[in-house]
Design brief:
- The chain is built from four helices and three strands.
- It has a three-stranded antiparallel beta sheet, with no helix packed on it.
- Helices cover 27% and strands 14% of the residues.
- It is an alpha+beta fold and 117 residues long.
- 20% of the residues are buried.
- A hairpin with a 4-residue loop joins strand 2 and strand 3.
């Protein structure tokens, strides 16, 4: 019963938050490892979606983290955010985790785009 209540609460929270997003300011970007709805005014993703499978997260030779965020090549001007973080004291983090992308080089590279931060 507690698990069901938790799932319902998470669904409500997510739907309420998402319904308040002004999508006219958003662009949708699809990559191999995730898709995002990136707000061009707020300069961050308001929704990131990915699906983990056994093949995606379990492999014999895991890739090392790249640890360098870059502009998303599908929206380079909108996601060129390095200057906003350099010297700011703020750190960057992933929406779709790097560990979930460690079995595929393309997915690992994609997860370090600013559109996933």
């Amino acid at each position: 019963m507690k698990k069901l209540l938790l799932v319902i609460m998470l669904m409500l929270t997510t739907s309420l938050t998402y319904s308040q997003v002004d999508t006219k300011n958003c662009i949708e970007i699809e990559h191999k490892g995730y898709s995002t709805m990136f707000d061009t005014v707020l300069k961050y993703p308001v929704l990131v979606h990915w699906v983990d499978t056994k093949n995606r997260v379990q492999c014999a030779n895991k890739l090392k983290r790249e640890d360098k965020f870059t502009p998303d090549p599908k929206a380079p001007h909108t996601t060129s955010l390095q200057k906003d973080y350099t010297g700011s004291g703020y750190d960057r983090g992933h929406m779709c985790p790097a560990a979930d992308n460690s079995c595929d080089q393309d997915e690992m590279t994609e997860c370090f785009y600013f559109s996933n931060m």
